[in-house]
Amino acid sequence: MKKVDIKNAVGTIQRELTKYGLMTPGNGIDFPVSIMVEQVENDRGRVVPHMVAKWRETTATPDGYDEMPTSKCEEMDRYFNAELFVNGIIQRAKWIQAKHEDRVAYLEENPFGHPALYPVWAESRHVAAQCINVMTGPVYC
User: Fold this and answer.
1) Cα Rg of the chain (Å, integer)
2) In a structure prediction context, what are the per-residue pLDDT tens digits for the chain, which is 141 residues long?
3) 76, 91 Cβ separation under 8 angstroms
């Protein structure tokens, strides 16, 4: 992949991550997802550019649930597609932004639940809480 193409790919990924609140380039370096281009050996033994995204995620461990670093890495060859790469991250945007305690609650209820389904679970939990908190009149939930 040419340097110009790499620069365009990085720009596309930054734009999409910023749109979903996962990256805020103007507000320092403390944002949920970081991206970089790294030189990594591929499956043919050549050292070539790879797009790497890193974030923290709640994961099941032998001792319960811990917040651990997670990464997504893909070779930037002629088949690389920046939109496809970033869609794998933004589909779990709400999951990445959620508090660790909320992610643990989701995983306890859905041990094999996919992070992309977290927003549906969170919304249903919010609606259920509203139904319980209504004090007067009939409740239609």
Assistant:
1) 19
2) 787 799 999 999 999 999 999 987 666 567 899 999 999 999 999 999 999 999 999 998 999 999 999 999 999 999 999 999 999 999 999 999 999 999 999 999 999 999 999 999 999 887 766 665 555 555 555
3) no
Say if residues 58 and 103 touch (Cβ distance below 8 Å). Answer: yes
Q: In this structure, what token pair is assigned to residue 91?
A: 């589909």
Q: Classify residue 14: in a domain, yes or no.
A: yes
Helices (H) and strands (E) in the chain, counts: 5, 3
Which domain range does residue 36 map to? 3-98
CATH of the domain at 70: 3.30.160
Q: What is the pTM of this model?
A: 0.82
Tell me if 110 is assigned to some domain.
no
Write 109-117 long-range contacts (CB < 8 A, 24+). 111/60, 115/57, 115/91, 116/91, 116/92
Quick check: 66 and 44 in contact, CB under 8 A? no
Dist. CA 22–CA 14, nearest whole Å: 9
